[in-house]
Design brief:
The complex is a heterodimer of chains A (315) and B (214). Chain A has 315 residues and is mainly alpha-helical. Chain A has helices at 9-29, 36-62, 64-85, 93-112, 115-136, 143-169, 180-205, 220-241, 246-274, 289-293, 296-313. Chain B has helices spanning 2-22, 48-55, 71-74, 78-88, 102-113, 138-145, 159-162, 190-207, and strands at 24-27, 38-42, 65-70, 90-93, 117-120, 151-157, 175-179. Chain B has a seven-stranded mixed β-sheet, sandwiched between helices. Chain B starts with a helix and ends in a 7-residue tail after the last helix. The chains are: A mainly alpha (315), B alpha/beta (214).
Chain lengths: 315, 214
């Protein structure tokens, strides 16, 4: 158990809770102004937010190990969704088991706080192991495409997301005076706020499409409004959760807004190539798990390394 | 007793396997028959097919869901035979006799007359994974014996990747289940029925937009 419940956590969680209450109320109120299908989808979406909020908050405030287990499960579900939607070769069936097995191993390094291993295990060790496995599979047809696809899947769904796990266990002695749980809440909350804000700004004011070849729904108004909202909220909540001053909080907000946008589009591009609307249907109203964590696959590692650098520089 | 064991087996083993380890994406679940008699016609790629199809139904309905199984394989050892006939509720059919022969048919007809839902795999056997083989005529023979039983086409994708024929290791893949519209009018022309079923299955397969697997 956490020896001490960080004082900044409670107001932020309460704020998040009230936002969900308000959103639920607004959607109920809009019932008569929406089409039946649009209404059902919004209700489902907000209900899913409640469930995500509940599970996430419970895991974060209870125990580090529980949070690492939750992240292991999320990476597993994301990777499974990925290999189920992309073309895979029969020859790589057994290799896939090795990749699945490496998910709990990656989170075990995090549990031990073995920083070096956490950083090289997937980008280096697994990169080479993957090729050994493919060579032993004795199939050259589609070799490069299959190898690149599987490596990409591991980087996105395991390596990137596992940075949230390491953020959680960052030791205080390393010069950080923030609790891991606060940092995780900070980055996850802002990334999701950015997604929602981009959607809302785009729906209400957006008309000029920003990059229709990748996603027909993304507009300039959504993009800029999202960055603005995220930066503003970052400055409001960072005193409670992070050691950042106002300027740093603003920069962090900008970073999350811009990179979250690209994370979102990266998964959109794949969906476009594969001619699918959603990556799955695990989360009602949202789509698959990759649809929900797409922005996080960019913001989590970038925020983590920026934060690491920041604490290193500021001593 | 067997019903309780069957429900336990599905609750403790099958549901977690199918819903967490594999993951299930069902489209048009509401089209499934609420009660028997009904025939479910599905493509066959894996031993997991029957478990997934049965897990789509509520636990209390499990006692009324039957399937047919190749007697040569499933009756080959007593444990497997007990498991297949008692826990899964399979009706053993001698290979070669096929559903086309009226002897083998009797048990299935009785199961339908007892208001059961019967799962059939008209490809005859688990074929090449994720490839649809030509249908055999058993379903047509059945519907001429008991006319008016609705036939539900169900297409599954993913289980042939997760546990194909001849493989012992399970590799997790999400399983997609697409349920088609039932063919429930009285059909006297057997080969026409089979052709329609095959077409409906191919349509369901193309609707799924599944990634290639080769």
């Amino acid at each position: 158990m956490n020896a001490y419940f960080p004082p900044g956590l409670l107001p932020v969680l309460a704020g998040n809770f009230s936002v969900l209450v308000i959103a639920t109320g607004i959607i109920r109120g809009l019932r008569n102004h929406l089409s039946n299908m649009g209404y059902t989808e919004l209700v489902q979406r907000v209900r899913s937010w409640w469930i995500i909020f509940g599970i996430f908050t419970f895991a974060i405030v209870t125990d580090k190990v529980l949070f690492l287990l939750l992240m292991t499960l999320i990476s597993y579900l994301a990777f499974k969704e990925f290999v189920s939607m992309v073309p895979v070769r029969r020859a790589d069936r057994k290799l896939l088991l090795l990749l699945y097995l490496s998910i709990p191993i990656q989170y075990t390094w995090i549990w031990f706080q073995w920083y070096g291993m956490f950083l090289v295990f997937i980008p280096v060790v697994l990169f080479l192991l993957l090729q050994v496995g493919m060579i032993l599979g004795r199939e050259t047809r589609g070799y490069l495409r299959a190898g690149a696809t599987l490596y990409w899947g591991m980087m996105i769904s395991v390596f990137s997301l596992s940075h949230l796990g390491y953020l959680m266990v960052l030791p205080q002695e390393q010069g950080t005076h923030a609790y891991g749980a606060c940092l995780v809440i900070y980055i996850v909350l802002l990334t999701q706020i950015n997604d929602v804000a981009q959607y809302l700004w785009g729906k209400t004011l957006g008309h000029t499409k920003i990059i229709p070849e990748i996603s027909p729904n993304k507009t300039w108004a959504g993009f800029l409004g999202g960055i603005f909202t995220t930066s503003a909220i970052s400055m409001v909540i960072s005193p409670a959760l992070t050691p950042f001053g106002t300027i740093t909080a603003l920069i962090a907000g900008l970073l999350i807004g811009i990179t979250g946008f690209f994370g979102d589009l990266s998964i959109s591009a794949i969906k476009r190539e594969l001619c699918m609307k959603n990556t799955g249907d695990l989360i009602p109203g949202h789509g698959g798990i990759l649809d929900r964590v797409d922005s996080l696959t960019f913001t989590a590692p970038l925020f983590f390394h920026c934060f690491y650098l920041y604490t290193f520089i500021s001593g | 007793m067997n019903t309780i064991l069957r429900i336990l087996f599905f609750m403790v083993f099958v549901k977690p396997l199918v819903q967490v380890i594999l993951g299930l994406q069902v489209s048009n679940r509401e089209k499934l028959p609420p009660a028997g008699p009904a025939i479910i016609v599905a493509n066959h790629n894996s031993h997991l097919d029957t478990l997934v199809l049965m897990s789509l139904f509520p636990a209390l309905q499990l006692a009324h869901i039957r399937t047919v199984a190749n007697a040569n394989y499933f009756l080959s050892n007593p444990w497997l035979a007990w498991f297949a006939t008692r826990i899964i509720g399979a009706i053993p059919i001698q290979k070669g006799s096929g559903l086309g022969s009226h002897n083998a048919l009797n048990d299935v007809v009785n199961a339908l007359r007892d208001q059961n839902i019967v799962i059939l795999y008209p490809e005859g056997t688990r074929g090449e994974p994720e490839k649809l083989e030509p249908f055999k005529r058993g379903v047509a023979v059945l519907t001429t014996v008991i006319s008016g039983v609705p036939v539900y086409p169900v297409y599954m994708h993913g289980l042939g990747k997760a546990l194909p024929k001849g493989e012992k290791l399970l590799v997790p893949f999400i399983c997609n289940v697409l349920i088609g519209d039932p063919i429930d009018r009285i059909c006297t022309n057997g080969s026409k029925l089979m052709r329609e079923l095959q077409e409906e299955m191919e349509q369901l397969a193309s609707k799924g937009n599944f990634p290639e697997w080769s």
